[in-house]
Specification:
The protein has twelve helices and nine strands. By secondary structure, the chain is of the alpha/beta class. α1 links the parallel β1 and β2.
Length: 328
C-alpha cells in the first residue's frame, strides 16, 4: 500500500494550557506532529476565549511544543471584531513579542473569523461571483477585510508574505484533502501579491466532525489512494471533564497503527507534496485556473451547508448556538 500523509492545523480558539496540554501530550506520545496556532494578545471578540503568549506558563508550553517538533504559527496576533485595535503598528509589535517570547518566528498563519487585519479574509477568499453570494449568505461580512490593502491602518500583507509560505483557504468534507483540491499547494494569481502558496483543509472544527470524517472507510480510501489529509480543527475542544474525547483517541490510535501513515506539520507536509510533484516533472506550485477555483468555492459552501443544516455537527450544533451561516 502507498504512503499517505496526515496533518492538522489547529486554530487556537478556546485553547488554554489546561485543555490543550493533555491533547498535545497524547499526540506527542503517539508520534503525531501537527501545526498549532496561537494568539499574542488576549482575545477581544465574543465569544472567543483562550490563552495567549502573555501568560508565561502557556508560552513556556508552546516553546516545548516547538522543541518537540510541532509547527507554531498565528491565528492573527489576536482575535477581534471590526473595532479591532490590531493596526499595523500593533501587529508588528505582536510579531516582535512572539519572537522575543518564544525565540523563533511564526511559520504559518490562519485568519481569525472577522478580524479586519485578515489577509484576503472572509469573502475575499472567493472570486467576484461567489464573493457576492457569500456576502449575501453571511451577514458578518457586511464590512471588509484590510490585511492586504495598502494604505489601510490594518495593512501587514508585506510582512505576511515574508513570513508565511502557505495560506489556508477552502474547506472540504472529505478526509482526502488532495482529492478535493488537486492543485494544493498552488498559486492563486488574484491573491499572490501578499501571499505565496495556498492550500485547502478538511473541515473538522470540533471532535464531533473529526470523528465523523475519520471513519474506517475514509481511512482505507485515503491509504489506498496514497492521499493527503490536512485537517482543520480546534483542539481546545477535545479535553473535557478531565478526559480526552474517546473517539479522537481511537482514531489517532488507528492512524498510528497504520505503518503507511506519515504525520508531519502542515508546512512540511505541503513541502513534501510540492517536492514529489517536482520529482516527476510536474510544476511544483501550479497556478490554479479560474474554473478549478470556482469548483473549490462551490464545494466549500456545500460543505458548510451540509454540516450546518443536514448533518448538524458544526460548531453551532457543538456549542448549541443559534444557527447562522458563516465562513471561518
Amino acid at each position: 500500500m502507498p504512503k499517505f500523509y496526515f496533518s492538522i492545523i489547529d486554530d487556537t480558539d478556546d485553547a488554554t494550557l489546561e485543555n490543550i496540554k493533555p491533547v498535545y501530550d497524547f499526540l506527542y506520545s503517539k508520534g503525531i506532529l501537527i501545526s498549532k496556532t496561537v494568539w499574542v494578545y488576549p482575545p477581544l471578540d465574543e465569544p472567543s476565549s483562550g490563552d495567549c503568549l502573555q501568560r508565561d506558563k502557556y508560552a513556556d508550553y508552546i516553546k516545548l511544543l516547538k522543541q518537540r517538533g510541532y509547527e507554531i504559527g498565528l491565528h492573527n496576533v489576536g482575535s477581534a471584531d471590526y473595532d479591532s485595535p490590531y493596526t499595523r503598528e500593533k501587529i508588528l509589535a505582536g510579531l516582535d513579542f512572539f519572537e522575543q517570547r518564544l525565540g523563533f518566528k511564526p511559520t504559518i498563519c490562519v485568519n481569525h473569523s472577522y478580524n479586519p487585519d485578515s489577509v484576503y479574509g472572509g469573502y475575499k477568499r472567493f472570486n467576484p461571483l461567489m464573493a457576492a453570494v457569500v456576502k449575501k449568505m453571511y451577514k458578518q461580512y457586511g464590512r471588509t477585510f484590510y490585511g492586504e490593502v495598502e494604505g489601510s491602518p490594518y495593512f501587514w500583507g508585506d510582512k505576511y508574505k515574508e513570513l508565511f509560505k502557505y495560506s489556508r483557504n477552502h474547506e472540504c468534507g472529505t478526509l482526502q484533502t488532495t482529492r478535493y483540491d488537486r492543485f494544493m499547494p498552488y498559486i492563486d494569481p488574484k491573491r499572490s501579491k501578499f501571499a505565496n502558496y495556498w492550500y485547502s483543509a478538511t473541515f473538522a472544527p470540533n471532535p464531533d466532525v473529526f470523528n465523523h470524517v475519520i471513519s474506517d472507510k475514509a481511512l482505507k480510501r485515503l491509504e489506498r489512494r496514497g492521499g493527503c489529509c490536512v485537517l482543520f480543527t480546534h483542539l481546545g475542544y477535545y479535553y473535557k471533564n478531565g478526559k480526552l474525547n474517546q473517539g479522537f483517541v481511537e482514531r489517532i490510535e488507528k492512524l498510528v497503527a497504520n505503518p503507511n501513515c506519515i504525520s508531519m506539520p502542515v508546512t512540511q507536509t505541503l513541502d513534501a507534496i510540492a517536492d514529489a510533484r517536482a520529482a516527476v516533472g510536474k510544476e511544483k506550485y501550479p497556478t490554479i485556473s479560474s474554473f478549478a477555483k470556482f469548483r473549490l468555492e462551490i464545494l466549500h459552501l456545500l460543505t458548510r451547508i451540509k454540516y450546518r443544516y443536514f448533518v448538524k455537527l458544526d460548531d453551532y450544533a457543538f456549542k448549541d448556538l443559534k444557527a447562522e451561516m458563516f465562513v471561518k
